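User: Here's a structure from my thesis project, written as structure tokens. My advisor, Dr. K., wants to see whether a designed sequence matches the one we expressed. Can you design one independently, without my sequence as a hint?
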């Protein structure tokens, strides 16, 4: 019972060691729900430019009763043609594209970083590209936040918002004014996390580790049983080798039994004395000593 709990705990620990900041890409997370996030970065693609013919929705959710601040660090999408955007990003203030738009079909290049605040703990992004002309796309950093007064486990930014204490000193400016990255001691530095785990990935990790452990246990038990059988055969044969007829493997299998399960009596070549398995008294020896 404790083994699965232990494995899940290990997977959770691995995730927590990675930190509170995760990295995702629209191209890899197309259609996914990035649930239970605290802070992270979302980009259009792992490549230098996004691909043609993308049509991806990604939903991000953070802790209940929190909101999300989206800070766009890069926004380079194909410019409008005849007033319409061939490639574009739309952002919805909720769990799906059915929620109100925060901006609709935005494209072109925005040089200055800009930010948006959601009204709930969910946000949905839709990125669409047509079949020609690709650009670097967008990069947005998102962070859960709440309004003051900050509670236990939260850090109060100079800007006045409360962010997760785990976002402090992780080399990412979640506060927007860098107050979470100033005055950090060496022991507080966490470094940037490159990969985040979803709940499904954590469960997959736990199941995978459990299967691996079961296989290891079975293999170990089998090897130990084989070792004990071999030891038993060696001990028995070493005791009787000098007094036995030369025998074949077939004889040994028959007389000794497969894998040493039987330990029959054998007849000595020299004295015609019955040689007993270890631990049994030899009648012939009794005769000689009496
Ligand atoms: Ca930070």
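Assistant: Designed independently from the structure alone:
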């Amino acid at each position: 019972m404790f083994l699965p709990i232990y494995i899940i705990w290990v997977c959770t620990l691995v995730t927590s060691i990675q930190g509170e900041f995760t990295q995702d890409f629209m191209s890899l997370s197309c259609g996914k729900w990035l649930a239970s996030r605290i802070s992270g970065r979302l980009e259009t693609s792992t490549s230098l430019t996004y691909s043609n013919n993308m049509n991806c929705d990604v939903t991000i959710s953070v802790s209940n009763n929190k909101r999300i601040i989206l800070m766009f660090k890069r926004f380079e999408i194909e410019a409008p043609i005849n007033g319409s955007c061939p490639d574009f990003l739309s952002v919805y203030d909720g769990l799906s594209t059915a929620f109100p738009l925060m901006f609709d079909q935005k494209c072109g290049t925005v040089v200055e970083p800009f930010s948006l605040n959601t009204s709930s703990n969910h946000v949905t992004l839709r990125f669409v590209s047509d079949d020609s002309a690709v650009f670097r796309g967008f990069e947005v950093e998102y962070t859960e936040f709440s309004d003051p007064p900050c509670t236990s486990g939260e850090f109060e930014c100079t800007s006045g918002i409360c962010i997760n204490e785990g976002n402090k000193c992780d080399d990412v400016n979640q506060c927007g004014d860098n107050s979470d990255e100033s005055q950090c001691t060496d022991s507080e530095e966490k470094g940037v996390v490159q990969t985040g785990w979803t709940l499904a990935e954590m469960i997959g990790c736990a199941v995978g580790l459990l299967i691996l452990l079961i296989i290891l246990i079975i293999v170990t038990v089998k090897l130990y049983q084989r070792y004990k059988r071999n030891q038993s055969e060696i001990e028995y044969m070493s005791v009787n080798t000098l007094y036995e007829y030369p025998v074949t493997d077939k004889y040994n299998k028959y007389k000794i039994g497969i894998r040493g399960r039987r330990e029959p009596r054998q007849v000595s070549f020299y004295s015609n004395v019955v040689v007993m398995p270890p631990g049994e008294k030899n009648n012939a020896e009794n005769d000689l000593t009496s």
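When you compare it with your expressed construct, this may help: Residues 199-240 form the longest helix (42 residues).
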